[in-house]
Design goal:
about 180 residues; alpha+beta; two-stranded antiparallel sheet; 6 helices; about 30% helix; globular
């Protein structure tokens, strides 16, 4: 079975999720190598790409992983939601020591997925995270190399949001518009 990261009660609005409440996992500071751990999480293999948008369940604000937030990502040993890196870098959520050792042992480099080893773990794990109806894992290749992905950093996202706010016109946008004359 795959190890589970970031499947918190608040993210799916269902109590009893595998990782409990996110509020219990928040810490004042993260690991000394938190940026490398976040980069590793950002580089994972996307298994299921979900088209949705969500907000930070603690602050209510949009974040760099708001789009497709509940998409599922893996390294072949662990499974996490696409928005999990946001919670690690922003709220320093507690990471299991065995996961941290695993990532450090890989020198923060995403490994390839070995289909033969991964498929049984995937099939066993998916019902635990609410994907019981998922099609069993079938890959077209024996080994899936990690694909490079462009991921917006938190700093880039924050700068873009600030610029957007500065460029927004002032005034009351709640007023109804007058109908046009024919």
């Amino acid at each position: 079975m795959l190890g589970l990261l970031g499947f918190y009660d608040e993210l799916d609005n269902h109590p009893g999720r595998p990782n409990g409440s996110i509020r219990d996992a928040v810490q004042p500071v993260g690991e000394p190598d938190e940026a490398d751990l976040v980069a590793y999480l950002d580089a994972g293999h996307v298994l299921i790409d979900v088209m949705e948008a969500g907000h930070d369940v603690i602050t209510g604000s949009a974040h760099r992983h708001s789009l497709g937030c509940s998409s599922l990502v893996t390294d072949g040993t662990w499974l996490w939601r696409k928005d999990f890196p946001h919670y690690v870098e922003t709220h320093h959520v507690l990471l299991p020591e065995v996961f941290i050792e695993h990532v450090r042992g890989l020198s923060y480099q995403m490994p390839p997925l070995i289909t033969e080893q991964f498929a049984p773990r995937y099939n066993e794990t998916m019902p635990l995270v609410g994907w019981a109806s998922t099609v069993p894992w079938r890959a077209t290749a024996a080994v899936l190399e990690p694909e490079p992905r462009v991921v917006t950093s938190k700093a880039e996202f924050d700068r873009a949001m600030l610029a957007r706010e500065r460029n927004r016109p002032h005034g009351n946008w709640a007023k109804p518009r007058k109908p046009r004359r024919a």
